[in-house]
UniProtKB/TrEMBL annotation:
Pfam family, one: PMEI
Name of the protein in question: Pectinesterase inhibitor domain-containing protein
Record-linked InterPro entries: Invertase/methylesterase_inhib (IPR035513), Pectinesterase_inhib_dom (IPR006501)
Domain of life, source organism: Eukaryota
Keywords: Signal
Species of the source: Rehmannia glutinosa (Chinese foxglove)
Pectinesterase inhibitor domain mapped to chain residues: 34-177
Taxon lineage: Eukaryota, Viridiplantae, Streptophyta, Embryophyta, Tracheophyta
Signal peptide (residue range): 1-25
Amino acid sequence: MKLPFASFLILYISLLFLLTITTNAKLISTNIKSTDKVFSNICPKTKQPNICLIVLKDDSRTRGAANNHELGYGILDIAISQAKSCVDVFFYSALKMNDGDRKEKYLDCRDKYNFAVGQLSEAKTILRKNDFATARRRIVDASQVPISCQKEIGEPPVEVRSANIVLDFIFDIAYVIVRELAINRNS
């Protein structure tokens, strides 16, 4: 039985996690204006504009972005970190298991998240080369991992569940950024 409150609580905890990993660097006012313009161009095009603003403004890897390229690098860094944390959770959860079949499924999911880390890393490298279509495909490939693992193991550990919620938002933001870069190049 799913409780709406439990889902909200997991989302709240995930967002709180994002807030706690930030630093308190101050930005000069001109940088704030250009950053706000970049955010206001991207966030309304995402599935969750308010969460997009929270993520982008509160993380040091995206907070000072002056353009979509910088924002793309930052959001991919965040996605890579989140995916790596899922790798660790699946690995340590598998170590504690006695059921060989279930343990194997967890290790398989760990490998899938390692694949996602690789895809996101490639997307970041490809983004530097302005190959936006290929970068978008890498992001889409990585975004399928949480879905695949959930189908394979059912309900994931709470740490992974909350990380998946955050990853879903981050994948959406990254996809929008790369799509905007492609549109701007073609216009």
